[in-house]
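Before going further, learn to read the protein records used in this course. The integers have meaning only within a learned vocabulary of local backbone shapes. To see the layout at work, look at the sequence and tokens printed below.
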Amino acid sequence: MSKIKIISSLELNSNGLQCKDKSGKYKSVLLRQGTMDGACATYSVMMNLLILRAINKSDTDVYAEHKSKATKKLFDVFCNSYGMHRNGQSFVKIKKMLTESFQTEVICERRNSDNEKSIDYIKDFVLNDLPVVISVETSKFAHALLAIGIEYEEIQIENVETEIVPTKIFCLDPSGTELKNNYWNSLIVLNPKTKGKKYKYHYLVDNEVYNVSLKDILLIQST
């Protein structure tokens, strides 16, 4: 029987998907592209910081007056110095930007991984109640998402130990539609019926399905 693990800091209520931000008040989590400067990786990072209670939801307003020096520097780097990220940014650059702008508040690790190894990392982080910024790649584009849960099966090995095998990754996608009655607005199917050699998985968002591979990830934690 499949089981689902969603990170515990998320709250689904009559106002939709929320978490406590830095103020300690419940605020909506999903940041959609077009509401703030920057591309998909910026939005995924900022959602991660909201869940960590490192920033306030009001900080993500494009006209926000940031009250702390750390938050002001964070948004200056992501939204002013490197605004829009029109050609995208590698996770190497995103990690450097986050480390240089917000090092007093968080630490960021990049794991250079691919497909099965990326799944292992995502599984471990989510089971330890940590969201993780992930990247998917198609034949035409790359995209950043925030993984906040997994579906998995427990397989008994020789009646001695239990192996946890993820079957789906649940994500918050800044390009996807907000779903008021769900923890995620996109997902990655890890065991599709048809599997390519390079693009092994199916990424589902809104009414679209893409064949994707899983690439490097960013793990952000509070200092």
Q: What stands out?
A: The mean pLDDT is 92.
